[in-house]
Every structure is written in structure tokens, then in C-alpha cells.
Design brief:
4 helices; mainly alpha
Amino acid sequence: MRLARPVYEALPVTYVVIGAGAVLLAAVEESGMRSGIAFFIGFCAWVAAFTLYLRRRDYRERSREYSGVNLEASLSVDEFHGPDR
């Protein structure tokens, strides 16, 4: 599934906002089952946002470091097999 670039870039921020809202709801709500569930959902949303942010950052750093060209595809037949052939 492909997402439009603005939606794709906004996902971590959306997760943080959802997480903050859920944690805030858990803090306002009297202690009980709903408060615990809201806190758990908020915590999971924050973990998802942080994980997504770190994975994207690592991927973007790695893609800047490597050109993405396959080593075997970049070598000609003579270079790959040596000058004897």
C-alpha cells in the first residue's frame, strides 16, 4: 500500500498527537479500566511514532551513503571474470 507523501511524512506526528491525547485522557479520567487502556494506547502510539521516526532516519542516512547500484551489475564481464578470459 502506498501513501501520498504528505500523509506518509505526517504519520509520526499523528501518532504522537494520538498518544498525547490518550495519555491526557488517562490522566484526566478517574483510575479504572478505561484509564489503563487509554494510557496503554497512548504509550503504544508513542512507541510506534518513535520507532517509525528512527527507522526512517536510518533508511535515509543509509540511502545517502550508498548509491544503490548493485556491485555485480556495475562491473563489466571483463572486470568480473578477470583479464584471462
